[in-house]
Structure formats: C-alpha cells, structure tokens
Design brief:
- It is built from five helices and no strands.
- By secondary structure, it is mostly helical.
- Helix 1 runs antiparallel to helix 2.
- It has one domain.
Length: 129
C-alpha cells in the first residue's frame, strides 16, 4: 500500500523541505524505509486518523482539528496580537507554549496532512482502477 502513497508523500516532502538536496535525501530515506517495511507504523497512524475522521461521534471526529485550532489561536495570539497589544497595554496576554507541545503540534499536523493526502491518493487510485 505504501508504494501507492509514495508520490503523495514525495510531494509533501517537496512542500515542506525547500532545499533540493535535503529533499532528495529525505525521499531516498523514505524509499529505503518502504523497502524495509518500516513504514507499517505510518500506515497504522494514517488508518487511525482516517477512522477518527470518519467516526459518527463528533468528539472522536473533531478532537484533532479542535486541538490544532487551539494551537493556532495560541500562535496567533503570541505572534500577531501580542506584539501590537503590548505596545499599548503593559499586561497584554502572552501565552506560553511548552516545547513538548510544539512536538505534539508537529505530530498532529503531520498526521492530519499525511492522512488527508493518503485519503486523496486512495480515492484517486480507486477511480483509476
């Protein structure tokens, strides 16, 4: 299954990594991992994300997007609102985001992006077949 997804994953790599040499290295590493069968964990994560997104219970289907929206609100506050508010208000709220949450944000966003890419690639593959 992962070999069908590699073109989509490669396009994500192209968007996320601007350096051409780093892109090639990342793609080679993905190919190596796919040949070794070590991407089974990624497939499991993608299937979990897809199952959650298709859930009939709104909490199960919406917890990842809600979490990402909270992160977006914190980032918007700290990098868009706070700089301007602090010019006029000495007690402007600056929300601290622990470094562990940045890692969670990367994982959550990556899971969502990969999940959506896999879903789209699977739909395209089914339409061709």
């Amino acid at each position: 299954m992962i070999s069908v997804l590699l073109p989509s994953i490669f396009s994500i790599v192209d968007k996320l990594i601007p350096d051409k040499e780093a892109q090639a290295k990342a793609k080679l590493e993905l190919l190596t991992l796919s040949q070794k069968g070590e991407l089974k964990e990624l497939e499991a994560v993608v299937s979990i994300v897809n199952a959650e997104a298709k859930s009939e219970h709104w909490v199960v289907a919406a917890w990842r997007p809600i979490t990402m929206l909270v992160f977006v609100a914190i980032i918007a506050n700290n990098y868009l609102l706070y700089p301007y508010l602090s010019l006029f208000w000495s007690n402007a709220p600056l929300l601290t985001l622990p470094s562990d949450l940045w890692g969670l944000l990367k994982i959550g966003l990556g899971g969502y992006v990969v999940g959506r890419s896999v879903e789209k690639a699977t739909e395209a593959y089914r339409r061709k077949g």
